[in-house]
Write a structure and sequence with these properties.
Elements lengths: L2 H9 L2 H13 L10 E3 L6 E4 L4 E4 L6 E9 L2 E12 L6 H30 L11 H6 L10 E7 L20 H4 L9 E2 L6 H4 L6 H10 L3 H10 L1 H4 L2 E2 H11 L7 E2 L2 E2 L1 H42 L4 H8 L3 H7 L5
Helix pairs in contact: 1-10, 7-8, 7-10, 11-12, 12-13
Length: 333
């Protein structure tokens, strides 16, 4: 399976999705619950805007995006959370994510205007709410309307360090503070396992923890073995989706038995290493045989040459190329 498909499927899980934002926004505190999240389907989700409560369907631009509802000070509030899955380094991530957020807000304003127009048409002949003033009519966005906050987090599943710019300003050569003060920066909110301390990764509560740990140490077998041993309970009962992500990202082919949607990664890695050792042993034996055959052919070739046999016939007799035999006999460099 393609890495993008596997990672997006993994991130779409409500528990994993909540885990990402609980880590990034709340430092691992379990504030966002999976049941607070709804799938973003514009045909089904509509949010109230302003005093008139005009219904506004929301848009979807990102890889995985969910609507979060939470009560704050007794009021129901809405948040839009978007997760971007990145298997390779994206050198224009600041522009891409900034565009997604801008499109989200532009879509909210446009849909608010449409909803207000629909509401006004429906009110003909009935009791009307307040009429918009000239500014509200021009923008379509009324004084009481409020945008729904949108937060985008990028998860980089690569095993290399992220070296791309993490803000718009990082993508520019402008250093003059007078110019920069007239501009708004945009920062990429990034989760990159190779650049994270283990104690940070351990704040995750779902299988994303093991995915990030595995990716971080995937190029260091000894360190990976130590990490898996110290987290054996979790690696021995890893969700199948998480195991699929590990395979797709690291390109490590694992054979494991699935039980109840869980897989034993420790056992799979152990079997893979045993197989590697067996293959290495067989390759060593084969190389030894080939080297022995070569030495015997060289000895035979020299003996035949000393007996005055033609080199071409010697080559045919020992079953090696003429050029190779000539090199053995010192006849050709």
């Amino acid at each position: 399976m393609k890495a993008d498909t596997v990672t997006k499927d993994f991130l779409s899980d409500a528990q994993v999705f909540a885990d990402i934002f609980n880590y990034y926004i709340y430092g691992g505190e379990q504030v966002i619950l999976p049941e607070h999240l709804q799938e973003r389907d514009p045909t089904e989700i509509a949010l109230p805007y302003g005093a008139d409560g005009a219904a506004v369907p929301v848009q979807k631009f990102r890889d995985v995006q969910k609507l979060c509802t939470a009560k704050t000070d007794g009021r129901l509030q809405y948040f839009l959370y978007g997760a971007e899955s990145q298997a390779e380094i994206h050198y224009a991530a600041a522009v891409k994510n900034n565009l997604y957020d801008a499109l989200e807000y532009a879509g909210q304003v446009e849909e608010a205007a449409r909803s207000h127009r629909r509401a006004q048409k429906a009110e003909k002949g009935q009791r009307k709410h307040k009429a918009p003033d000239s500014g509200e009519f021009l923008s379509g966005f009324w004084k009481e309307d409020r945008l729904i906050p949108s937060v985008t987090i990028m998860i980089y599943f690569g095993s290399k360090e992220w070296e791309a710019p993490l803000s718009l300003f990082d993508m520019m050569d402008i250093k003059d503070p007078r110019v920069l003060s007239c501009m708004d920066n945009y920062h990429v909110r990034l989760i990159a396992p190779v650049q994270m301390e283990d104690q940070e990764i351990l704040k995750f509560q779902t299988g994303l923890r093991e995915v990030l740990l595995f990716i971080k140490y995937s190029k260091n077998k000894e360190a990976l073995a130590a990490v898996m041993e110290s987290n054996k309970d979790r690696f021995s009962a890893l969700e199948r989706r998480a195991a699929d992500v590990i395979e797709a990202i690291t390109h490590i082919s694992l054979n494991y038995k699935e039980s109840g949607g869980k897989v034993d990664m420790c056992q799979a890695i152990q079997e893979m290493r045993t197989e590697e050792r067996n293959i290495g042993r067989q390759e060593g034996i084969q190389e030894g045989r080939q080297e022995g055959r070569k030495e015997e052919a060289q000895k035979t070739a020299k003996n035949l040459y000393e007996m005055g046999i033609e080199v071409s016939k010697i080559a045919k007799g020992v079953d090696y190329a003429l050029e190779t035999v000539e090199q053995w006999l010192g006849l050709k460099e």
